[in-house]
Each structure stands twice: as structure tokens, then as C-alpha cells.
Amino acid sequence: MPIRYIKAAPTTYVIQFQDGKVRREGPGLSFLYWAPTTTLVAVPLASADVPFVFNEVTKDFQAVTLQGQLTYRVADPKRLASLLDYSITPGGKYLSNDPEKLEERLVQVAQVRARTVVQGMDLREVLVRSEVVEAQVLAALGATEAIRMLGVEVMGFSLLSVRPTPEMSRALEAEAREGLQRRADEAIYSRRNAAVEQERRIKESELSTELAVEEKRRQIREAQMAADIAVEEQRAALMARWTENERHAADARAYALEKVLAPVRGVDWKTLMAANGGGNDPKLNIALAFREMAENAGKIGELNMSPELLSGLLGPTQKEPASEPQQRTRGNR
Questions:
Q1: Chain-wide mean pLDDT for the chain?
Q2: What is the model's pTM?
């Protein structure tokens, strides 16, 4: 049948050429057309992902493999259709392989830009800063004139992996492992040093506390000694004052006794006895008589005392019986 029907998806831009002229164009069109004189062009507008694998060399001459994907979409389908053949058969297949060449061109341009970025970085920097590589390559692709001329917009450049050679990978792993082990050892040493330092501070604090306690104890002992000395000094002063007072009191009593005895110092004791009223006591008089006899013992030849006399002296005083012993004493004398 020379009359055909086409129904395109909304993400497909269709251009109908007839007799060398554009009859209709737009996304998602559906129409009947005369097949013998009509050429259909279908440009996909949906975004597409193109995988890639780049083998590049870094600034320090180390091989590195970049693996990822490039995301793009057609921004100007008419421009792209004018540069590449996107004509299709009535069955919907492309008549040429130009649509595949678009992806190859994009990958080639991306590889050139990625090579420029990677060659300006060291291997370690490329491995740990893949986001920098992505950002720089994406910016470079957006500013590439060849891509703008194709009417294509690069939406993203993503790196899924960045790998060095196996030998370099093992070397980096060993270096990283040694670095981690060294940092672990440093952490252990630091922890030990911190523990020793903390222990030293604790010991110093304990010694300071002990010194402070001993200082307080010394101050307390000194204060107690000072208090004891003060008490002893007060006691000594009190004792000295008491002794002085006692001495003054004794001096006063001696002075008073001396003044009392001064008038009678030269008076006979017998006179004093008589003045004191002691002569009225017979026993006292007998005692005085015996004392006189004792004083004049050399003058007495013999002295006889009867039991009656002793019992009379020791017994109650009787005036009448006393005369006989006196007379007898005189006779014997």
C-alpha cells in the first residue's frame, strides 16, 4: 500500500519530508503519508545513558581506569537531523548507523576532556577526588563547541569506579595499611602518654594534698603548743602571783605577830602565865612545880611520890586532901 500511517511517541521528534520540503514536524505526531514520495526522520528526545571505560595516565605517570556513564539528550532535533541521518523505514528502523555514531562522538569528546583533567592530577588525588573530575569534565563538555553544533545537551558525567593498576593498587593498599597501623600505634602511644600524664597529675595532686594535710597538722601542733605555752605562762604567772601574795601574807602575819609579841618579849613566862589566868588551875600549878623541880634537879637529893598523890593529880581536883601531900612533900624535901 502506498499510503502509510505513523504514530510516534511523545519523546520522538518526527519530521516529514515530501518532495524535498518539510510538510510537518513535531514530537508525538501521528498521520497518514504517501510512502513513495515521503521521507520520515525520527529523532529521540528522551535522555540516554552511554557507558564508557577510559584508560588514562595521571600527572605522576600512573595508569588509571575510569568507568562510568554519560547522560545526554537532544536539545535541537532539527540541527541534529541536518548533521546525521535519522531517517527511518516504514517499519521504524533507521536506514543508517548515524544514531550510533552520535554516542561514539560523545564518548570520544568526553574521553578527551577527561584525559585533560586526569593528566593535571596525581593518582592519589584522582582516586580520592572523583567528584572533582566529574565536575570539571561536565563543565568542559558543556563548553565544547562540537557538542553544541550537534544540538545535544550533556546532562551528566558520572564515574562509577576509578581503579589503578593491580600492582599500584596493592602498593597503595599496603601504604594505606601501614599508615593506618602507624596512626593506630600513635593513638596507642598517645593514649598511654595521656594515661601516664593523668597518673602523674593524680600523684602530684595526692602529694599536694598530703603536703597540705601535713602543713595543716603542723599548724595545728604549733597552735596547740602555743596554746600550751600560753597556758603554762599563765599558770606560771598565776603561781608567781600566788607565791607573791602568800609571801606578802606571811610577811603581814609575821609583822603582826612581831608587833603583838614586841610588848611581852622581855617579860618572864611565869608572869605571862599569871597574867593569862593560868594560876587558877591546880593541875597547871602542880605541873609548874614539877617543872621547877626538874630545873633544880641538881639541888634535890631524893623525891618520893605516893600513889595517893598521883591519883590525886590525875583525878578530880579536891582542895582539902591536897594539903597533906604538900606537907609530906615538904617534909621529905
A1: 84
A2: 0.54
